Amino acid sequence: MARAAVRVSWHVATVVGARPLTGTARALTLSAPGFAGALPGQHVDLRLTAPDGYQATRAYSLARAGHDERVDLVVDEVPGGEVSPYLVHDARPGDQLEIRGPLGGYFVWHDDDPAPVLLVAGGSGVVPFLAMLRARRSAGQQPGRHAPFRLVCSVRAPGDAIEREEIDAPDPGLQARWVYTRQAPPGWPTPPGRITTADLTAPGFGPDDGTSVFVCGPTGFVEAAAGLLTGLGHPPGRVRTERFGGA
């Protein structure tokens, strides 16, 4: 017997916080009455309605999971876009918009899974991983929940690193590696370049360790990274991917 489709309702959300993260990215906190919370890795649809009735909808990963009516997003501006420029430059506390979700059940990390986790991000693809890292740090305070994490994050230049201070905060269960494709910080040990197999290889996070792998970023980045990972021997079924691009 076929299951009936579950309809996800739209919620009116109010901007209650906004702060810049980089020259093109901004963190937004929304209050969304009726929103039931989300799992790390899920996303929401966000809808804006113009005065003339025109509507534009985009999907955004959640930067925080939890069981409450708070929604945390990080939006990176897409030049010429219909939605992201408003969210990055114009949205203010008190403004209202609509969200629908949470959505997605495949690209999700569960905090009771003890398997090592390898996260591979391209640019703003780090956003769903922020939710996973924050959930892990919260779950890590509970007995028996100490899944080791390794994050490899590729960005153009140091100024494009989203929430780097939080990611680099001391955490014995997290290894973070930054890859710069165009401009590296002074004295950085490796020259700028694309992600390589060396960046994705670390003791305890290999194919034989039962590692759960998540890759998120622009389509080209995701395809290249996934190819490197499977080439290293990670089973395709354990490499979960999520990609994005301009509308």
Furnish the topology, listing elements before pairings:
Layout: E1 10-20, E2 25-31, E3 43-49, E4 55-61, E5 70-76, H1 84-90, E6 96-103, E7 117-122, H2 127-139, E8 149-155, H3 164-167, E9 174-180, E10 212-218, H4 219-231, E11 239-244
Parallel strand pairs: 7-8, 7-10, 8-9, 10-11
Antiparallel strand pairs: 1-2, 1-6, 2-5, 3-4, 3-6
Proportion of residues in β-strands: 25-35%
Overall body shape: globular
CATH topology of the largest domain: Rossmann fold
Amino-to-carboxy terminus distance: 37 Å
Spatial ordering of strands, largest sheet: 4-3-6-1-2-5
Give the full name of the CATH homologous superfamily of the largest domain: Nucleotide-binding domain of ferredoxin-NADP reductase (FNR) module
Report Rg: 18 Å
| Count of helical regions | 4
Ranges with pLDDT <50 over ≥5 residues?
Answer: 1-5
CATH class of the largest domain: Alpha Beta
- What series of H and E elements makes up the topology? EEEEEHEEHEHEEHE
Q: What's the average pLDDT?
A: 92
Q: Could you say what the CATH architecture of the largest domain is?
A: 3-Layer(aba) Sandwich
Largest sheet: 6 strands, antiparallel
Question: Which assembly state applies to the chains in this document?
Answer: single chain
What's the domain count?
2
Helix content: 10-25%
